[in-house]
Amino acid sequence: MSNPQGRSQSIIFLALLSAACLLLCGLASAAPSITLSKKTGPPTSRILVSGRGFAPNGVVDIYFDTKDEAVAIANSAGSFSQIAIPAPASALPGDHWVSAVERSGDRATQARFDVHANWRQFHRLNMERMNPFENVLNVNNVGNLELKWSYATGGTVYSSPAVANGVVYVGSEDNNLYALDAKTGAKLWSYATGGPVDSSPAVANGVVYVGSDDNNVYALNAKTGAKLWSYPTGWLVDCSPAVANGVVYVGSWDNNVYALNAKTGALLWSYPTGGRVPSSPAVANGVVFVGSWDHNVYALNASTGALLWSYPTGTFGRSSPAVANGVVYVGSYDYNVYALNAKTGAKLWSYPTGYGVPSSPAVANGVVYVGSDDNNVYALDAKTGAKLWSYATGNYVESSPAAADGVVYVGSEWPDGKVYALSAKTGTVLWSYETGLDVDSSPAVTNGMVYVGSEGPNVYAFGLPDDYPKQDAASKRPDLKTLRPDFGIKPSKPAANTVRP
Q1: Upstream peptide bond of 491 is cis (omega within 30 degrees of 0)
Q2: Euclidean distance between CA atoms 103 and 74, whole angstroms
């Protein structure tokens, strides 16, 4: 006699068993995939690659473009994690590909990695006004620069551009901060403050920070321009904020240096100097360095605002300090460039120019580059202060140089009114562009482009011609079948989850 209930249970069991088999088979044959610890970054970025869906204990080669960079050994579940590979220093701006290819079998997959460098604030994060990642423009091709676009604001552009994630941020005397597409110059948004925006913006964690002559510091959403917060100081703010470790450091003409919570704008501390603070702070190793019109350069504890030391120059200064290798470099209207010990404030050397030095120094490869109102750009030995070369422009040089890949970029005042590219080694002019008006704005150089403002009232973008012969960026998606393993590479162990910016 049959048992309907038992037969029914058997059918259910078989169905569940079948479903389980299908699920397991599906998991076993699931397409492999990889995830990257970051999807974008400059050349030399450290990328941690994790994968799944490979054969148990399989050997997997990991490529950046077509170069085999590392070998991973999958675990019994066919997964691996945190295998470190570099984005090569030669990787040009644009899309590149990370590929994971199993040596035995046909499992392979890819993920896109966007190579680009940012110029997020006046000094850059290295506090040296130097871009170590620039690998497109150099002494051999910079002479071919051409105007790619210009954007006319409603007033003079003293502000120096910041560039982040494909957007140029810059202020204008028409009271606005602008966000422009870095490739086309198209306006993405603008934010109207209550006064001229001579301050150079800083960008960090999706937020733009900038000062205004309406006496406020602003924090704006980098994508939309929506105001997140503002902080009122006692007078105008025309210096450039510096952002470090979740804190915004900025000076005001009310004689104070401020430290504000980057998320909320809450005051953390303020330090009263004896004069206006048009100098932009530099933050390095837990110390804030800034100049004041009370004739002093200050070093303040970044956490507390406590005075660590001050150094008296001969008169007031507008120059913003640069910090490199334990030395603070700064100009003064007493006609000198100073090098000070970053820990003690002791003077290491000074170099006399022929007039005031409102320009902020750039430091690269042991050389200090700075402009002077004696119409010259100077290159000084960073250790001794000895002059290596000088280049005479046609008028004051109040623009601050930017250094990148053997080239120094700087502007000059009308009637010269030019943007220059000079050889960092010799001072030879490699390229220049005449704006016809003052160029007080300081260039930002990144991703093969030069961005700068002028009294025009324009923002300019210069780059190589579209048809200029370049080396292949190796950014075409590689055919996985053509990738060849490097059998000399030993398997990598999972890396700690610490990545370079």
Answers
A1: no
A2: 12
How do the domains of the chain map onto residue ranges?
31-127+473-501
- CA pseudo-torsion sign 342, 347, 348, 352: positive
Nearest to 322 by CA among 356, 276, 359, 296: 359
Give per-residue pLDDT as tens, 455-473.
Answer: 989 999 999 999 887 654 5
Give me 298's structure tokens. Answer: 């200050």
Q: Check: CB of residue 351 under 8 Å from CB of residue 380.
A: yes
| Neighbour tally for 449: CB within 10 Å | 24
The 8-class DSSP code of residue 136 comes to: S
3-state secondary structure of 333: coil
Q: Which CATH architecture has domain 31-127+473-501?
A: Sandwich (2.60)
H or E stretch covering 296: strand 296-301
| pLDDT per residue as tens digits for the range 339-361 | 999 999 999 999 999 999 999 99
Q: What is the pLDDT of residues 185-209, one digit of tens each?
A: 999 999 999 999 999 999 999 999 9
Distance from C-alpha of 81 to C-alpha of 495, rounded to nearest angstrom: 8
* 86 phi and psi angles, rounded to 5 deg: -95, 150
Nearest one of 307, 305, 324, 316 to 277, comparing CA atoms? 316
Please give the structure tokens belonging to residue 363: 């430091």
**Cα–Cα separations (whole angstroms), residue 215 to 84, 212, 233, 372:** 47, 6, 5, 29
The answer to whether residues 249 and 240 touch, using CB atoms and an 8 Å cutoff, is no
* pLDDT at residue 304 in the model: 98
